[in-house]
């Protein structure tokens, strides 16, 4: 079962890609032969080549398990059909990767490690799909002959690739524009064949593991490829890349699923009551934090620092922080001072800073772009975390960026790689954030009717867009803006809504049960939606949702799918973010409220400024995402089916 | 007499302007005012109780009209009326008992018809009195002897009797007023002492290391928590700040001054924190006859959250907060909207409001109270002990007579 599943995951993303690239080929006929050939090979012979062939079939066959999203349907079915009938169009995932490699001639690539190979291949190899089989054989031979054993290759990929990687490898190729060609080779294997192949793969893998463990991941792959090349200049190299990729993919699919699983699970967060780790973290920290003296006992596991102390310190250090890119630095300061807040805004600011970083990046001598840049980004991220803990959406975005970097084909020149990265990031911003919001607006507006009284809490950007759009559509409705201390973000929303001529009522969260009588719908934003359906959002959202459900008012949560996360949470205590405690003792604009002045350092008095809370899924009627409107119980499905894909975009 | 009038007028003014805050303070002022009304009231020889009742009712109506939302005023007026009725009744029964003895003594006079008539009469009156002191306002008590009717035979008999009895009577009149004032004093004492009475029970409800959530600023809650603290219980208190009025800050300040571990949280964090709270304790503004509670704004939210997490929701209420009325749409009818300036500064949004076009409009809602339905309340702690919400109607019947429910 496992082996089946994994491949599926792998395949998925590619399938989606297909939508864009369908142009590829009718060459299935020509490819078939190739396939047949490879299969036998794989079954009988070496570990490396077989994987390739197997991947796609098994992947496709798995699909029964998953619930395909409506639009994917067509693409899903295709591969299956292809497998069965041999008529397959370019759809199958595996085919893509192949094609890329083949067609894309790229003189520069010689040194590239297997995964990046797609760019590298000289056209010469391409002649016809049918010719490939031969090539494949050759390459295999070459690989074997080369100093690095084939098994070495596989291990490498195992070791290196984080769950996503293998997929990316294939996905990447897809991206590169060149999808033209030949590929649907493998589809047509019969079941028996497939099984044989799988078996072989498994065996190979086991072997690989046995001997391969120590080879350093990246290097081994590249070594392998280079060595192969040495043996056979042009074509072999292509093959080789394929092989490497294939190996990677297979790994993924067949075996190490458990390992992958483990990696799949979100990393445990830093727990701030673990002293040794805190000390370590401090040593690395750029931002000097003073620990708050008066910490809230229940929240020792969260960072509790004095606020307001870091800013001047950091500003002073501006010119000494040479490793820090100014754009990142600026964003960090903005987080620190609270100039940028709100999930989307923070995420976009960060991504744009990373774009700058990429633009100004130059690979240091003796270093590899992928790895060095990943390290750089990591250091920036930890700086940003020091400024303000990451939101879940930012975590997802960072994962995406790192993924993209890791998947950059080595064959790309530095400038090309940078351009590719920048456009990837740009696309993430446009598709996953801005585009998603548009889709959400389109969905949500259908739920607003004339005469509605809509309640919203805080100032969620998605909801604001919905309200403004509904107003443009001349729907007649009234908005209740509920606000809470200390941020009073609702006032900003209120101002913007009123300027547009929407009738509003403003109140504070305590009055929620007074006002709930007249409400017909509640629209809420979310910082994240967790896979148990819990909505993690601005503190107070849970109160609003609870009261609304007590009054039988439907609660609609608007959240872009990139904010979904596979983590689960039952309460708001275990992970949260603490704001500035002084914001609570001082009431802005109300000098008459000064009861707590002078008590801020009293050991008996703490201030707890929670930033988020977790709304249980039973209070939520519907979650509106860019994939449509779903009940909270469907969140895990979206997380499972789309998360990988969006990391691969 | 005129100074009573002016006192009443002054108090009505204060109520209207909401100068007096907190149901305890209001209740105390009301009783004291009523006490002076009673003491200044000239009582006719006949039917003194009725005269007193009328006077108190008249003043009470003014007071209630001045601030209908402050239910404590009405409660206290009803309590005073109840005291008058009770005292009157007990005097009557005592007098009847005295007459009985008298009749028994001159039984040897052959005035038999009288002798027989009186005891029979008084027996009926005593029975009626006994019934009306059994508080539940049953239909029977309402139909049969009311205290007024009970006085009738007495006066008639005294009129018919010798002058020794009239002297007796004048002393009785004085005694009624005296007794009533005595009773009212007791009520004052009870109101001012309810904190201690309630606080005494704290130790039974708070255990070591407990985490307690409270909101609003209530003296009863403060005393309750401090009483437990004095008994060497150590526990921590979360105080929700109670947004537009920030009374939570006030409470936190006092708690800290008394050495309690206090954490101030925003109102929005109530739901987030409730899962780590062992008990929610709030002070009520008023308790309705169905067991519903009127409390500071935001209480309903806390009660719902507590219910969701099965955290006991405990309401502290002195007996002057028990209101014999059943609420109808209390969120609106028993509420009060305060100034929007507590939420938004005056004129802050005038720049974006386009009054000419009349398209967009802005309302600001700032209610003072919140209603918690009885099914969300786990326990009431009053000065007479702990009670279930479903028992409140009965408890209330102890304090008020059925005649006064509608004033």
UniProtKB/TrEMBL annotation, chain A:
Compositionally biased spans, kind Basic and acidic residues: 1-15, 176-197, 250-278
Pfam families assigned: IF-2B (PF01008)
Keywords, alphabetical: Cytoplasm, Initiation factor, Protein biosynthesis
Regions of compositional bias (Low complexity) in chain numbering: 22-58, 83-99, 198-210, 219-238
SUPFAM superfamilies referenced in this protein's UniProt entry, alphabetically: NagB/RpiA/CoA transferase-like
Entry annotated with the keyword Thylakoid: no
Region (Disordered): 1-127, 164-280
InterPro entries membership: IF-2B-related, IF_2B-like_C, NagB/RpiA_transferase-like
Organism superkingdom: Eukaryota
Localisation per UniProt entry: Cytoplasm, Cytosol
Keyword flag Cytoplasm: yes
Record text on subunit structure and interactions: Component of the translation initiation factor 2B (eIF2B) complex which is a heterodecamer of two sets of five different subunits: alpha, beta, gamma, delta and epsilon. Subunits alpha, beta and delta comprise a regulatory subcomplex and subunits epsilon and gamma comprise a catalytic subcomplex. Within the complex, the hexameric regulatory complex resides at the center, with the two heterodimeric catalytic subcomplexes bound on opposite sides.
Family: Belongs to the eIF-2B alpha/beta/delta subunits family.
Protein name: Translation initiation factor eIF2B subunit delta
Lineage: Eukaryota, Viridiplantae, Streptophyta, Embryophyta, Tracheophyta
TrEMBL record, chain B:
Chief subcellular location: cytoplasm
Subcellular location(s) per record: Cytoplasm, Cytosol
Cytoplasm listed as a keyword: yes
Keyword Cytoplasm appears in the UniProt entry: yes
Start and end residues of each stretch annotated as Disordered: 140-172
Keyword terms of this UniProt record: Cytoplasm, Initiation factor, Protein biosynthesis
Family: Belongs to the eIF-2B alpha/beta/delta subunits family.
Quaternary data: Component of the translation initiation factor 2B (eIF2B) complex which is a heterodecamer of two sets of five different subunits: alpha, beta, gamma, delta and epsilon. Subunits alpha, beta and delta comprise a regulatory subcomplex and subunits epsilon and gamma comprise a catalytic subcomplex. Within the complex, the hexameric regulatory complex resides at the center, with the two heterodimeric catalytic subcomplexes bound on opposite sides.
Protein name as it appears in the record: Translation initiation factor eIF2B subunit beta
Species for this entry: Camelina sativa
């Amino acid at each position: 079962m496992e082996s089946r599943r994994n491949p599926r995951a792998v395949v998925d993303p590619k399938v989606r890609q297909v939508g864009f690239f369908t142009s590829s080929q009718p060459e299935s006929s020509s490819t078939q032969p190739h396939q047949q050939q490879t299969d036998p090979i794989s079954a009988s012979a070496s570990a490396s080549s077989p994987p390739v062939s197997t991947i796609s079939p098994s992947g496709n066959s798995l699909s029964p398990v998953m619930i395909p999203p409506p639009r994917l349907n067509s693409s899903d079915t295709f591969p299956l059909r292809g497998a069965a009938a041999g008529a397959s169009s370019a759809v199958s995932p595996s085919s893509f990767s192949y094609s890329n490699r083949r067609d894309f001639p790229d003189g520069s690539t010689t040194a590239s490690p297997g995964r990046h190979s797609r760019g590298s291949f000289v056209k010469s190899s391409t002649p016809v799909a049918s010719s490939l089989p031969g090539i494949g054989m050759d390459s295999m031979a070459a690989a074997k002959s080369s100093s690095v054993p084939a098994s070495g290759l596989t291990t490498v990929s195992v070791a290196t690739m984080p769950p996503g990687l293998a997929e990316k490898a294939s996905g990447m190729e897809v991206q590169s524009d060149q999808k033209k060609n030949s590929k649907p080779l493998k589809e047509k294997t019969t079941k028996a064949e497939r099984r044989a192949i799988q078996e072989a793969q498994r065996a190979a893998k086991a072997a690989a593991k046995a001997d391969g463990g120590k080879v350093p991941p990246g290097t081994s792959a590249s070594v392998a490829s280079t060595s192969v090349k040495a043996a056979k200049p042009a074509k072999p190299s292509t093959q080789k890349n394929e092989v490497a990729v294939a190996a990677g993919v297979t790994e993924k699919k067949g075996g190490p699923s458990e390992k992958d699983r483990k990696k799949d699970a979100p990393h445990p967060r830093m727990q701030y009551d673990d002293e040794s780790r805190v000390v370590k973290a401090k040593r690395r920290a750029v931002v000097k934090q003073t620990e708050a003296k008066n910490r809230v006992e229940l929240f020792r596991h969260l960072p509790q620092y004095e606020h307001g102390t870091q800013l001047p310190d950091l500003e002073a250090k501006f010119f000494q922080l040479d490793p820090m890119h100014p754009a990142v630095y600026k964003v960090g300061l903005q987080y620190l001072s609270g100039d940028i807040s709100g999930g989307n805004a923070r995420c976009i600011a960060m991504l744009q800073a990373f774009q700058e970083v990429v633009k100004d990046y130059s690979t240091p001598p003796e270093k590899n772009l992928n790895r060095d840049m990943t390290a750089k980004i990591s250091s920036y991220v930890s700086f940003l975390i020091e400024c303000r803990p990451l939101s879940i959406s930012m975590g997802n975005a960072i994962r995406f960026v790192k993924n993209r970097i890791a998947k950059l084909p080595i064959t790309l020149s530095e400038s090309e790689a940078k351009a590719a990265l920048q456009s990837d990031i740009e696309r993430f911003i446009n598709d996953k954030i801005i585009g998603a919001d548009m889709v959400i607006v389109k969905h949500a507006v259908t739920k607003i009717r004339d005469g509605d009284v809509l309640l919203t809490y805080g100032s969620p950007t998605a909801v604001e867009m919905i309200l403004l759009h509904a107003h443009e559509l001349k729907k007649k409705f009234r908005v209740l803006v509920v606000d809470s201390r200390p941020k009073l973000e609702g006032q900003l929303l209120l101002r913007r809504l009123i300027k547009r001529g929407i009738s509003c009522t403003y109140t504070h969260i305590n009055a929620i049960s007074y006002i709930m009588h007249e409400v017909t719908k509640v629209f809420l934003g979310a910082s994240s939606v967790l896979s148990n359906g819990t909505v993690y959002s601005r503190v107070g959202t849970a109160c609003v949702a609870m009261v609304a459900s007590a009054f039988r008012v439907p609660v609609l949560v608007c959240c872009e799918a990139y904010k979904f996360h596979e983590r689960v949470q039952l309460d708001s205590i275990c992970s949260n973010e603490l704001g500035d405690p002084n914001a609570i003792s001082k009431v802005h604009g109300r000098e008459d409220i000064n009861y707590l002045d002078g008590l801020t350092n009293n050991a008996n008095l703490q201030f707890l400024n929670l930033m988020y809370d977790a709304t249980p899924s039973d209070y939520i009627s519907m979650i509106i995402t860019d994939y449509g409107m779903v009940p909270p119980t469907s969140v895990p499905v979206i997380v499972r089916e789309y998360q990988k894909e969006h990391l691969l975009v | 007499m005129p100074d009573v009038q002016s006192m009443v007028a002054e108090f009505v003014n204060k109520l209207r302007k909401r100068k007096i805050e907190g149901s305890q303070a209001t209740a105390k002022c009301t009783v004291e005012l009523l006490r002076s009304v009673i003491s200044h009231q000239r009582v006719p020889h006949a039917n003194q109780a009725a005269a007193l009742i009328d006077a108190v009712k008249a003043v009470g109506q003014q007071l209630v009209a001045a601030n209908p939302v402050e239910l404590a005023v009405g409660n206290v007026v009803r309590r005073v009326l109840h005291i008058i009725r009770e005292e009157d009744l007990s005097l009557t029964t005592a007098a009847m008992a005295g007459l009985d003895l008298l009749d028994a003594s001159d039984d040897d006079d052959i005035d038999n018809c009288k002798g027989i008539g009186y005891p029979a009469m008084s027996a009926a009156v005593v029975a009626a009195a006994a019934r009306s002191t059994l508080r539940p306002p049953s239909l029977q008590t309402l139909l049969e002897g009311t205290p007024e009717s009970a006085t009738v035979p007495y006066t008639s008999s005294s009129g018919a009797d010798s002058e020794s009895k009239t002297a007796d009577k004048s002393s009785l009149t004085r005694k009624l007023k005296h007794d009533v004032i005595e009773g009212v004093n007791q009520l004052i004492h009870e109101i001012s002492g309810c904190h201690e009475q309630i606080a005494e029970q704290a130790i039974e409800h708070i255990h070591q290391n407990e985490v307690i959530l409270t909101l609003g600023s209530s003296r009863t809650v403060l005393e309750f928590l401090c009483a437990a603290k004095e008994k060497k219980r150590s526990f921590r208190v979360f105080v929700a700040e109670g947004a537009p009025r920030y009374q939570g800050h006030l409470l936190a300040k006092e708690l800290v001054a008394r050495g309690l571990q206090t954490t101030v949280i925003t109102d929005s964090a109530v739901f987030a924190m409730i899962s780590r709270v062992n008990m929610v304790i709030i002070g009520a503004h008023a308790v309705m006859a169905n067991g519903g509670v009127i409390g500071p704004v935001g209480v309903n939210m806390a009660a719902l959250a507590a219910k969701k997490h099965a955290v006991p929701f405990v309401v502290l209420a002195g007996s002057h907060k028990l209101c014999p009325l059943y609420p109808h749409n209390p969120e609106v009818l028993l509420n009060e909207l305060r100034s929007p300036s507590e939420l938004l500064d005056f004129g802050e949004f005038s720049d974006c409001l386009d009054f000419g076009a009349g398209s967009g409009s802005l309302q600001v809602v700032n209610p003072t109270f919140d209603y918690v339905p009885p099914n969300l309340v786990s326990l009431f702690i009053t000065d007479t002990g702990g009670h279930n919400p479903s028992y409140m109607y009965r408890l209330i019947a102890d304090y008020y007579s059925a005649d006064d429910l509608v004033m």
